[in-house]
Amino acid sequence: MALINNFWILSFILFLIASPLLQVVRCQSDEAAANAGEVSDIGIVGDETDDAQDFADGGFPSAPGVDTICVFPKNIARLVKGGEEAELLVGLKNDGQSSLNVVAIKASVHLPFDRHLLVQNLTVQVFNNGSVPSSAQASFPYIFSVSKFLQPGPFDLVGTIVYEIDQHPYQNTFYNGTIEVVEPGVLFSMESAFLFTLGTALLVLLGLWINGQIQNLKKPKRSSKVEVGTKTTDPSMDEWLEGTAYTRSTSSKSKKK
Prior knowledge:
The protein contains six helices and eleven strands. By secondary structure, the protein is of the alpha+beta class.
């Protein structure tokens, strides 16, 4: 039992050490992405221009009634291979009174311990026809790639979608969380391997504990000894049995002693 307790304590300490790598991200689940609607022809990707680049570089407020979510299709772990293309879907819901026109999607990579330190500006993806009517929703693909010279490890990704309403620019940050850059061909990161090892060890320990409990239940219980004292009789019972065969047998036994 002491070994089991020590193992639990060690596992908890290892989990605390790994917790800085397990940063909570704001990207919604696949179920939320399904609610954002399927990818349609509403956003046609065009070539990047200088005007669109300047427009996307501006800092604009978000419009009321416009919400965004995102999801990494078939990439729950959010692993991005250096030098290779990665894809995410941006879902946009327009609950405002006017239709909006999506102009561009941009993103940037930052150091995880200080988001003010910029590592790389990613491609600005421009949309020539990204109109979303009022009370409608749509999703837009964003394809990006980080530098192949980027050192593998966790980084912060900040993604923004820029749109216009009545010729006024607005923007929403659809993702502000962690991705992990891995080398091409690497299927598992060090973090994933650690979590897999820790989870396997905990499952094995749980199995051993359950087996021990089952063995304890199978052990036969020891019967406790019962002390038998001297026999006592109730006087009222003797009077009721007086003159019967029971009293005669009792008296004969006492005479033999």
